[in-house]
Design goal:
By secondary structure, the protein is an alpha+beta fold. It contains 17 helices and 20 strands.
């Protein structure tokens, strides 16, 4: 089987499609990663000299010009699996304070964004990151974005396996390699061995979720594979199970193969219809699985038993670790926004009370791990720990927000301040409400993951009572996990000024169990499902005396 090489790739794009979108034309003209060589000149000449094409290419370096704040840029820093250390945290705080406005956002992809700095300082900023082992490369545009996982991997007493080393190895394989820097669109990836369903796996382009074959002491731990999930580009597409079981030592190879299938076969025409999910819809799961097996040149076992619990857990609170006499503390950073001085203080605390490690969560929180019993009481008395509560109640426990219109030109409304204000009012009027997730997204790109929340709010500008005002559409009942469900749009064009009153009448009667009842968990893998005739034919075609796929002919999918 001859795989597509990067050398021939641009030529193949031109020959194989009728038309390509503007971003594809930019990539055809020059490899976007080469923009790093031009960065010193760009910094010297200033932002107004940057061509529109280079504005797009800079996103491959994690540098984003924010049209909402002309002349100022945002930096997105990759934090694989959310794992970081005090010296890195302190450097991020230093960069945000010295070059930016001191504002740092923790995102739903377990990474950070530093805001409001000039392109003049970009080379110095990237050098600062590199000095502490951090990178912003390929955190934007058509790349594998920050790979997320369980933020308490290696600590959770009941985890099936620790996937953090897999995330690290896959990141090292992909980042900086031009073979993976020219995808048709962005690619979100999650790998977790946690039972607590903490990464919204069904919303990812590719997710490896904990699963096993066998029973008790003979249990073989690994992952089931889900592919084609998304939240933007037309709404929530629930990732399709590929009926594949992957061992930990195979995970990097399998993930890389899926990414390359998307690279070679994904659409490069309309950018609103070129996520991996569209390719799977076009091909069907059977053909996609066949292509994966063919590329790996070996058969893959069928999916195992899903190890995840039905309902999600955000790891906020104080928990015992699997390590003796050790604890981790999960702190809620409201809507993910933290000041540089506060982040620096968090770095100081983990040096004083822990082992210098901090982990970021997709729920916009911080995990302080490896706190000995003898240090726990003193840590809990620190002012920063009291501000970023480890036991938030009601609405604030599950509050998440995208950046909003303050810094993002795509957002229709300001979200972060509004989210906190509405939550404050709801906490006053609905005291005692059990925790639910309330997620805000400022636009349909769904960076706030509003479609997988108990209550999801999508910002918009709407004409209400003859005036155009900030408003939201209200969704309820979204869920990822072993029993995923699409959120239901309940209300449209609700003015933000009266939103708290509307939610007061909804939340007391909201019950995820009633909206989307979870059926008794079925043990996938206990009984192998009857294969479709087409799939049996494909598998027979792949069989050969050597046990390797025979790739001499393509099957007829028509």
């Amino acid at each position: 089987m001859k795989l597509v090489t990067l050398r021939d790739f641009n030529r193949l794009i031109l020959n194989s499609v009728k038309s390509v979108n503007k971003i594809e034309q930019i990539k055809i003209e020059a490899s976007p990663l080469e923009i790093e060589k031009k960065l010193p000149d760009i910094a010297r000449e200033g932002w107004e000299s940057i061509s529109e094409d280079d504005v797009q290419r800079l996103k491959w370096l994690g540098l984003f010009h924010r049209t909402a704040t002309p002349g100022y840029f945002m930096l997105r820093v990759r934090i694989p699996g959310g794992f970081t250390f005090s010296h890195q945290i302190k450097m991020l705080a230093h960069v945000a304070r010295k070059y930016g406005n001191g504002v740092i956002d923790i995102t739903t992809r377990m990474q950070v964004q530093i805001r409001h700095f000039k392109i003049d300082h970009a080379p110095e900023i990237l050098e600062c990151l590199d000095s502490v082992g951090l990178s912003s490369t390929q955190t934007g545009m058509d790349n594998v974005r920050n790979i997320i996982g369980c933020p308490v991997a290696g600590l959770h007493p009941k985890e099936l396996l620790d996937a953090s080393s897999i995330i690290s190895a896959l990141t090292q394989k992909i980042v900086g390699d031009p073979e993976y820097a020219n995808l048709p669109r962005k690619f979100n990836l999650a790998i977790s061995g946690c039972p607590d369903n903490c990464v919204h796996a069904e919303s990812q382009d590719l997710a490896l979720v904990p699963a096993y074959h066998g029973e008790s002491d003979k249990r073989i731990a690994g992952f089931n594979v889900l592919a084609g999930g998304k939240l933007g580009s037309g709404g929530f597409r629930i990732a399709s199970p590929l009926d594949v079981f992957v061992l930990p030592e195979e995970a990097v190879e399998v993930c890389a193969a899926v990414v390359l299938i998307f690279r070679d076969h994904g659409s490069r025409e309309s950018r609103s219809k070129n996520r991996l999910g569209f390719l799977i819809d076009e091909w069907g799961v059977d053909r996609f699985r066949f292509e994966l097996v063919k590329r790996l040149r070996r058969p893959l076992p069928r999916a195992g038993v899903d190890f995840r619990n039905p309902l999600p857990e955000d790891h906020l609170g104080i928990y015992r670790q699997k390590q003796s006499l050790m604890n981790y503390v999960g702190l809620k950073v409201q809507v993910g926004r933290i000041q540089a001085d506060e982040l620096e203080e968090a770095g100081r605390l983990v040096e004083k009370y822990g082992n210098g490690e901090i982990r970021l969560s997709p729920h916009q929180s911080m995990i302080l791990p490896n706190i000995p019993d003898k240090n726990l009481g003193d840590l809990l008395e620190e002012s920063l720990v009291k501000k970023f509560d480890y036991s938030p109640k009601g609405i604030k426990k599950g509050l998440v927000s995208c950046v909003g219109s303050d810094y993002c030109s795509l957002a229709a409304i300001e979200t972060k301040t509004r989210a906190v204000e509405v939550a404050d009012r709801l906490e006053e009027s609905l005291s005692g409400t059990r925790p639910i997730s309330v997620h805000w997204s400022g636009c349909p790109a769904a960076c706030g993951n509003h479609l997988v929340a108990d209550v999801g709010l999508l910002g918009k500008r709407a004409k209400v009572g003859g005036q155009v005002v900030d408003a939201v559409d209200v969704f309820v009942g979204g869920r990822a996990g072993p029993h995923p469900q699409k959120a239901v749009k309940l209300l449209e064009n609700v003015p933000c000024d009266t939103l708290h009153q509307v939610l007061e009448s909804i939340i007391p009667f909201h019950a995820r169990e009633k909206m989307h009842p979870i059926k008794k968990k079925q043990k996938a893998g206990k009984r192998e499902p009857k294969k479709k005739p087409q799939l049996m034919e494909m598998e027979n075609e792949l069989s050969s005396p050597s046990g390797k796929p025979d790739a001499r002919e393509e099957p007829n999918y028509v």
